[in-house]
């Protein structure tokens, strides 16, 4: 009896950690980079909030750790599942995200830090549906642009109807986000949509037509005055920070001062004068890269960017190894989303991108954003586990 139980125990252990098991086949480099970024982010959030946290010096950091633990639980649950359920439930996930965006612009929505993008849940927690739209839109677009096989074959290019419906789905999501208004997230959604459409293999003339239409739409939005005054100021300040020295121009200038003051090795964690004095706004969220620049220096900043690069490269590798178009488009869409968001966040702190409310993936403080990011890499992991032999 004991021997039989021993065999069962060894068999169970073999299934869990043995060769060919989920643990054995996991992309540990991807997971390790995410964990490292999360750990660095926690320290940076702690440093950025310890002098003003309304709870205690470590209050915001503790909430961030709680968000990370919930995110890791989501990661664990999703990574071990068969990703093909995403195709089936993509419309449901998209509908839930749309409903959340509608609730935000209804009386149920709340304004936090000047953005009407939240639904308060109580207990100091809030939900940001725009973040949930990111993974929902990726899987929905992948479903529309990677139709199921017909008689054992899959079309080389997406149908025109699928492309039109994809643009409508993405346009509806972007419109609801802009009503908040949230320009940064809208930019991320549109960039992700464009990338997935290109990855789907549409004809070059359609790509060129889309780029032309996007350019004309941007000109129309600017010319018709559809942007809020502060949004216009963000673009003008990119060219000339002195045009708004007390507003966006101030933010840009102080961000550069904070990053530059760190020099090569930084001033040391918790010793940044710009961070301690709160000279840069929203340093625990949108401007957290300035904390890395000031306190960890050039070396620390490059480390953060390098770890994000590892996540993107592993995601791109997973996309190349996919066995079907749906998983390839989902993987490619996730990589495009995280890459563009990283570019915008880091770029705005060093003065090459306009100031927008876009957090740095896996590093910035945030509950819903953390859950969305962890869901994204969990989907990548689930696709990886089923795209390589056991």
UniProtKB/TrEMBL annotation:
Q: Name one GO molecular function term.
A: peptidoglycan glycosyltransferase activity
Q: Which GO terms describe its cellular component?
A: cell division site; plasma membrane
User: Predominant location of this chain?
Assistant: membrane
Q: What is its EC number?
A: 2.4.99.28
Q: Which UniProt keywords apply?
A: Cell shape, Membrane, Transmembrane, Transmembrane helix
What's the superkingdom here?
Answer: Bacteria
| InterPro entries named among the record's database cross-references | Cell_cycle_FtsW-rel_CS, FtsW/RodA, RodA/MrdB
Q: Name one GO biological process term.
A: cell division
Kindly give the PROSITE patterns that the UniProt entry links to this protein: FTSW_RODA_SPOVE
Q: In which pathway does it act?
A: Cell wall biogenesis; peptidoglycan biosynthesis
State which residue ranges cross the membrane. 28-46, 66-85, 92-112, 132-148, 160-179, 185-202, 207-227, 296-316, 328-356, 362-383
Q: Does the keyword Cell cycle apply?
A: no
Kindly indicate whether the keyword Transport belongs to this entry.
no
Q: Which PANTHER family match?
A: CELL CYCLE PROTEIN (PTHR30474:SF14)
Protein's name in the database: peptidoglycan glycosyltransferase
Localization, UniProt: Membrane
| Catalyzed reactions per annotation | [GlcNAc-(1->4)-Mur2Ac(oyl-L-Ala-gamma-D-Glu-L-Lys-D-Ala-D-Ala)](n)-di-trans,octa-cis-undecaprenyl diphosphate + beta-D-GlcNAc-(1->4)-Mur2Ac(oyl-L-Ala-gamma-D-Glu-L-Lys-D-Ala-D-Ala)-di-trans,octa-cis-undecaprenyl diphosphate = [GlcNAc-(1->4)-Mur2Ac(oyl-L-Ala-gamma-D-Glu-L-Lys-D-Ala-D-Ala)](n+1)-di-trans,octa-cis-undecaprenyl diphosphate + di-trans,octa-cis-undecaprenyl diphosphate + H(+)
What membrane topology does the annotation report for this chain?
Multi-pass membrane protein
């Amino acid at each position: 009896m004991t021997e039989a139980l021993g065999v069962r125990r060894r068999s169970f252990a073999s299934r869990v950690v043995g060769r060919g098991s989920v643990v054995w086949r996991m992309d540990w480099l991807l997971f390790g980079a995410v964990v490292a970024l999360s750990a660095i982010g926690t320290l940076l959030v702690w440093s950025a909030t310890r002098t003003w946290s309304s709870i205690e010096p470590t209050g915001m950091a503790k909430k961030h750790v709680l968000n990370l633990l919930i995110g890791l639980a989501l990661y664990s649950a999703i990574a071990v599942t068969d990703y093909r359920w995403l195709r089936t439930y993509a419309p449901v996930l998209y509908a839930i995200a749309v409903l959340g965006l509608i609730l935000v612009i209804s009386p149920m929505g709340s304004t936090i830090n000047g953005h009407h993008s939240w639904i308060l849940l109580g207990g100091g927690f809030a939900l940001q549906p725009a973040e949930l739209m990111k993974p929902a839109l990726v899987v929905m677009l992948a479903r529309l642009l990677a139709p199921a096989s017909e008689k054992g074959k899959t079309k080389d290019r997406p149908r025109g109807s699928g492309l039109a419906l994809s643009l409508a789905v993405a346009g509806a999501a972007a419109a609801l986000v802009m009503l908040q208004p949230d320009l940064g997230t809208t930019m991320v959604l549109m960039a992700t949509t464009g990338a997935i459409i290109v990855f789907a293999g549409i004809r070059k003339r359609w790509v060129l037509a889309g780029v032309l239409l996007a350019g004309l739409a941007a000109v129309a939005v600017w010319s018709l005055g559809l942007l809020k005054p502060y949004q216009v100021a963000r673009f003008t300040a990119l060219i000339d920070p002195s045009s708004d020295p007390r507003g966006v121009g101030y933010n840009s200038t102080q961000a550069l001062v904070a990053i530059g003051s760190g020099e090569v090795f930084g001033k040391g964690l918790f010793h940044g004068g710009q961070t301690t004095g709160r000279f840069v706004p929203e340093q625990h969220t949108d401007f957290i890269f300035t904390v890395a620049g000031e306190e960890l220096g050039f070396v620390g900043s490059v480390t953060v960017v390098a770890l994000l690069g590892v996540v993107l490269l592993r995601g791109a590798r997973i996309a190349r190894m996919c066995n079907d178009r749906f998983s390839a488009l989902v993987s490619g869409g996730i990589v495009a989303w995280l890459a563009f968001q990283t570019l915008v966040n880091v770029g705005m702190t060093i003065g090459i991108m306009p100031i927008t409310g876009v957090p740095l993936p896996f590093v910035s403080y945030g509950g819903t954003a953390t859950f969305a990011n962890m869901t994204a890499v969990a989907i990548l992991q689930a696709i990886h586990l089923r795209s390589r032999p056991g």
